[in-house]
Amino acid sequence: MTNKNNSPAFFNGNYMTIDQVAISPFDRGFLLGDSIYEVIPVYNGTMLGGEKHCQRLLHGLHAVGIESPYTLDGWQDVAAPVLLEGQAAQLIYIQVTRGAEQVRKHRFPIAAPPTVLIFSIAFSPSVSELYPGCAGHLQEDLRWQRCSLKSTSLMGNVLAYQQLYSDGVANDEALLVRNDRVVEAPSSNLFMAKDGVIFTPPIDNILPGVTRALVIDIAEDLGINMREEAPSIELFKSADEVWVTNSMEELKPIISIDGRPVGEGVPGEIWRQLFESFQTLKG
Ligand SMILES: Cc1ncc(COP(=O)(O)O)c(C=O)c1O
Q1: 104-148, pLDDT tens digit by residue?
Q2: Exposure string (b/e) for 21-55, b if CB count within 10 Å is 16 or more?
Q3: Which residues pair with 40 in a beta bridge?
Q4: Does the beta carbon of 210 sit less than 6 angstroms from any atom of ligand 1?
Q5: Would you say domain 8-122 falls under CATH 2.60.40.10?
Q6: What is the 7 CA–ligand 1 centroid distance (Å)?
Q7: How many CA atoms lie within 13 A of 174 on its CB side?
Q8: Ligand 1 contact, 189 CB (< 6 A)
Q9: How many angstroms does the Cα of residue 224 sit away from the middle of ligand 1?
Q10: Ligand 1 neighbour 230 (Cβ under 6 A)
Q11: How far away, in angstroms, is 209 Cα from ligand 1 center?
Q12: What are the backbone dihedrals phi and psi of residue 249, each rounded to the nearest 5 degrees, phi first?
């Protein structure tokens, strides 16, 4: 017997349950990974950074030539009814594919409306003040060359996490290296602090994370010096503090790199200040 999933979903203009969603085998999201997605955190019924997330969605769709069926406000309105009742924290998942044509061709379809799927997933924030920290491992960045787009073609990211799993460290974090610089994690942005200055890679070819942007604003408000620069491996290994950010894990401290402790080997003071301020943004 299969588990029924009666959670609300929005699919191609209609509200239904997740079980009722029927996606064509010819859908280009399925066949070609030809789609853009977005994940919006919601705390006590209020989206955190909802507008920024929807702006990134619109930007991504435009960049790959998928016409957005909704406006900035429209996306937030259409997503709201899928929220799960009584959940303190949940993530709205939105995926927009280039649609379904009854052929498998790489070129864009001649006439196919985009496929839109939206649903919500409950989660419990995994990082707290008492979080002991997470080990990090440097890995070569094997992803494609347009990492600023939130594409569902995530094979490079999948393989990065599978590598951790195969190495017996599934709960650790992969830290991705491009041209001798540490640029990102497979599902998070990267920060380090050294001598009171925060470094974070610029958003030239990484995902412009919404959590990253919120953390930069907090650091500015707190008067902490910030440099948008990808650290060399050498600088990174000498960091006093390292943390990664995303919508689900918020700010996750990394306390070792390839087995060597970061600073004192515990979450640091700058992380703590930013983490505390971040909590006040949540509804
Ligand atoms: C590769 C990558 N970088 C960074 C992020 C963080 O983005 P956000 O803070 O908007 O969740 C994500 C989120 O999924 C990601 O996949």
Answers
A1: 999 999 899 999 999 999 999 999 999 999 999 999 999 999 999
A2: eeebeebbbbbeebbbbbbbbbbeeebbbbebbbb
A3: 92
A4: yes
A5: no
A6: 25
A7: 25
A8: yes
A9: 23
A10: no
A11: 5
A12: -95, -5
Expressed in angstroms and rounded, the spacing between residue 101 Cα and the centre of ligand 1 is: 30
Nearest-5° Cα angle at 32, 27 to 36: 80
AA letter at 121? I
- Cβ of 200 less than 6 Å from ligand 1: no
The answer to whether the CB of 246 is under 6 A from ligand 1 is: yes
Contact 151, 64 (CB under 8 A): yes
Whether pLDDT at 181 is above 90: yes
Nearest to 122 by CA among 275, 2, 10, 5: 5
The tokens describing 209, both together, are 């994370």
* pLDDT > 50? residue 1: no
Domain residue ranges in the chain:
8-122, 134-279
Q: Is 205 in the pocket of ligand 1 (CB under 6 A)?
A: no
Is 134-279 a CATH 3.20.10.10 domain?
yes
The answer to whether 150 is a known catalytic residue is: yes
Ligand 1 atom nearest to 157, measured from its CA: 1
The C-alpha atoms of residue 176 and residue 190 are separated, in whole angstroms, by 9
**Overall average pLDDT of the 172-200 stretch:** 98
Strand partners, 115: 97
pLDDT tens for each residue of 233-252:
999 999 999 999 999 999 99
**Pocket probe mutation, ligand 1, options 142, 187, 281, max atoms within 8 Å of Cβ:** 187
**Whether 18 contacts 34, CB under 8 Å:** no
